[in-house]
Each structure stands twice: as C-alpha cells, then as structure tokens.
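Dear Dr. H.,

I hope your travels went smoothly. While you were away I took the liberty of generating a structure for the chain from your last submission, since the lab meeting agenda had it listed for discussion. I wanted you to have the full record in hand beforehand rather than looking at slides cold. The sequence, exactly as received, is reproduced here:
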Amino acid sequence: MIAIVGATGNTGRATVKELRALGENPLCVVRNADKAKDVLGSDARVAVAEVTDRAALEKALQGVDRVFIVTGHNPQSGEQQLNIVEAAKAVGAKFIVKVSGGASMATADSDTPVGRGHHMVEQAIRESGLGWTILRPGLFMQNVLAQAALIKNDSKIALPFAPDLPLSFVDTRDVGAVGAHVVKNAEKYAGKTIEYSGPASTYAAFAKDFSAVLGKTVNYIGVTFEQAEAALKARGLPEWLIHHQLVIAHLAAKGGFSNANPQPIREILGREPISTRQFVEDHKAAFS
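The corresponding predicted structure, in token form, is as follows:
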C-alpha cells in the first residue's frame, strides 16, 4: 500500500490524482479530514495524523509499504519529516520517496532552515536502511499565483529575478505525476535522485504568455531584493518565509535554478512537460 503524507497540497493532490489514474488507491495522511474530502473527493482513503505526532503517524501508516513525503514548508519541516521517516521505518515500510528542494538550496549550510531541513531528511533517508528516491523539481509555476492581484489590477509581475535569467520552471501537476509513477514503480527508481523541470524559460517569457492568454500587455519588472522584501512584508508574510523567498532569489541570481531538465518528465510520463503558456491558460480565471 502507498501512503501520501501531505496529500492536500498542490503536489500531493496531483500525486493522488495520478496514482488513481494508474489504478492505485493511496492512503492520504492528512491533518484535516474535512479538507481532505473537499479537495481529494469524498471517496478518498484518509488517515488523520499530525506530522509532529510520532505515535499518530505510526498508527496511520500501519500496513503501508511505500511512503511519499511532500509536506509544506516551515522552519520545522525537517524535524517533522524525520518523524515521518522514523514512523515509516517503525511500521515496516520498505520505501520512501521524498520531494526535496533544489541542489543549490538543500544543503547542510543552507541560508534557509527549509534547505537545511531538506538536507537533513535526505541524509536520514539514505541512512535509514529503506529503499529511497529523492525528487528535485524545479521552481513551481504555481508560485506566480501570488502575483494574481498585481496581474489583474496593474498588468505586471514584479519579482527579484532578472527578466532574462534562465529558470527551470515546473508545474506542480507534473511534479506530482512524476512522483506517482516513481512511488508506484519504486524498485525501478531505487537509489536515484531525479532532477526535473520543464524547458528553461524566463520571467520575461512568462509575462508574454500572460499577455497572449489574457489579451492585454503584462509587463515583467525585475525589482531589487529590498523592494521585494518590502512587498512581502506588506503582504504580512512571516519573517522566515520572507527570508526563504529571498534566499531562493539570491541563489537563482547565481544560476542555482537555471539548469532545466525536462527529459525525466518525457521519459517517465511519456509526454512533454506542461508549459508556462498551458499553466496560464489553465489558471486564466485566477488572473482575469
């Protein structure tokens, strides 16, 4: 049996959807059963457990042999995911698939606790004695949804990335679909770290996709890190998340997210990755 821990997030939902299409009925380990039914369907197979509660996780994971981990970012996410790994091992699971961060961010000395957490959990998984696969997707296209109001009201995107900086965007639907195939066919991908994204693009090109789909000119403005920090504070985001997003922008400026790799999506899913243009078309209502 396959368990998805973090099933109600964008990537988790996509993983569950793809697994069902592949004939699986995964166990969705969630914090809120009502939310799970709302976003996954009333027929979703659900177990409730806080990722901070080791005993609850062990109870939820009974009978599971493969665990897919895709929990949300927060300063304690590393410790929380360690709980999941230890619970999986305690109940006799055989394999773990983890959605991690980019190689430039998921390091022992990362400037963000999220990055340090990813590295710590990766090391624990590799040393756990269980089978494992680490997934390293590119930058989520869905992050631009945070710019929806700016696009709707001011016809612009404003972020701390150079307009022509190559970036490895990926749709979370592709992230989840790849994850589903990997956890279903775990033995095929055992011991592998898979980096994947769509083809390289830029925010200037992304803005052109918005212009074409929305029928109006959407301009991309590369703001300074200081301007970005002020805008994030104005939105009321917590300090740790502001710092995390700025760390990502700094790493990207140094090329940390420029190496696109669409080939794993083509090989694993048998199709092209979802494009930025398709993303905008599919989410048009959010930006109109």
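Two observations you may find useful: DSSP finds 13 helices and eleven strands in the chain. Residues 155 and 216 are 8 Å apart (CA to CA).

With kind regards,
E. W.
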